[in-house]
Structures are given as C-alpha cells and as structure tokens.
Amino acid sequence: MRYYLGADLGATKTHTLIVDQTGRALGFGESGPANHESVGYDGMFQSMHDGMVQALHSAGLKKEQISGAGFGVAGYDWPSEIEATVAVIDRLKLIASYKFVNDAVPGLIAGSEEGWGVVVVSGTGSNCRGWDREHKREGRVTGHGVMMGEGAGGSELMHRCMQIVGYSWTKRLPKTTLADAMIAYVGAKDLEDLMRGYTTYEYHIGAEAARIVFRVAEEGDQAARDLIFWAGTELGEMGNAVIRQLEFENLAFDVVMTGSMFDGGRMLIEPMHETIQKLAPKARLVRLRVPPVVGAVILGMEAAAFKITPEIRKTITETISVLRNVSVR
Prior knowledge:
10 strands, alpha/beta, 5-stranded mixed sheet
C-alpha cells in the first residue's frame, strides 16, 4: 500500500492530511500559521513539522512510508521564493517526491471536477489562479489586494466601505446606513467620531466586519448593495484576467469559488458570474465544498506520478469528513 501526504499552509492555520492509494483518509493534523511573510521560514517549518507529526501519528505511519507529498503554501508568490521554500520542505526529511504551489491552487484541484480551471479566492483577502488541463501553464493575479488594485476580499470590501462612509460624511455621496452600522460596530459617539477614530487608528474596521455590509445590503441600503455589486464585478474581472492568460475563453471549465465572502450568496456571486460569462460563456461557477487540503494531497499523488481517478477523489472527500470535521476556509 502506498501513502500520500498533503498540507495546506495558511496564514492562520495549517491542515495536513494523509491518504492511502485508494483515497481513504488515514491521518489528519492541525497546526499553526505557516505564511513566511508573518511567521518567517522557521515558523513555517515548525507548523509544517507539527502538522506532519500529528497526521503520521493519527495514521499510524512513519514518514519513510510516504510516497508523494503536495503543499499549498501561503506567501509563495514569486519564483524568487522557490529556493527558500524548497529548503524548508527539505528540512522535513521526506524521501518522497513532492510538489508545492501557491495556497490558492489546492482549492482549484479539490473543487473542480477534473482538477483544472480557475479558482477565485475571497476571504480576508483575495486571489485568483488558474491551471490548464495538463497542469503545465498557470495564470494568476498578484494577490496583493489594494496595493495592486485587486479585490475583493473582506479587507478590500471594508477599505472601500469606509471610503464610502467618509464620502457620506463630507456629503460627496448621499447618507448611507452603512455609517450607522459602523458607528454601532466600533461604539463611536457619532459619524464625526467614527471618522476621527478610524483615521487615527483608534477604531479598527477590518475584514471581520464584511458581514455587516451584507446585512445592511439585505435591508435595502443602496450604497451597500452597490458596494457588494462592485466586489462581485471585481472578482469576475480577476477571473477574466486569468482566463485571458490561459486562453480559456472558448472552453468549458470550472471556476471554483472559495472563501467566506461567498457566504454572502447571490448578491456577490451574480455580478461575478455575469462578468465572467461575457468573456467565457461556457465557464461553470462551483463552490468549494471540501477542505483545500484535499487538493494538496491530490497534488502529492500527482508528484509521485500516481493516476487519480474520480473514485479516488470521491473516497478522499467522503472519508476526510469521517476522519475529522474540517471546515472549508
């Protein structure tokens, strides 16, 4: 029997999964954050190591028994980071073949029916990547949000939300109940106090407040509805950029949606869908319903040149839920 390891190295946590060649999930580990931009490469290694040890213990295996490994790495954005990432993975002392990709890609592998297409991430931040059918060509955006004019995750949504609230205060735009909602959220005395506290960094309004925008939009506030429409359109444009890079315009393929922002439903998804359909009418939007670590372990199988069948995919997704109640990021 052969065994494969996958690890989803995130900014807040790391999930590690071990399956056998039939796809049966055998071991799982959850450890700390592993984005080198926030915890450094030593912190990245520690989280990888801790997750691997947990998963091996859970599976009753030794690392020498692993035949292939796949890693989705948060913070791995540029070829200049390859050498440092390889050095960290090699510290695990696996004898298996391995592959590593940006942490957006495992969501695409896990969520698309055939393991290729486009993935749009909208959670705290946002990202978009794509792979062709042969996993030879990759399309991407920078993944650096406001800095590069890309959106829209929760952080970008709230950045724009507070601009709109500021416009309301200066009467550049009409009054919006978003202002009242943000005043209540931070406990400000009034709109001027909200502006003062926000611009002096006394009041923090980050991605976690995105749910309030959706609530206000559902209650009928036009500014909030327009804001969510903007976010959906922006996500669609990110997808279109990658579609053009990979020349997918006339193909039938999956666009996998992953991240908590998509919990907002049709108000966000419909403008994204309409934007993508104008360029790629055969594109299918699908929501990721399994943990991204499923894609990482499939990548590990691919690294060992093991053929993944639909039956294996199904077995992984069914048995991981039994092994551990893992939530989709």
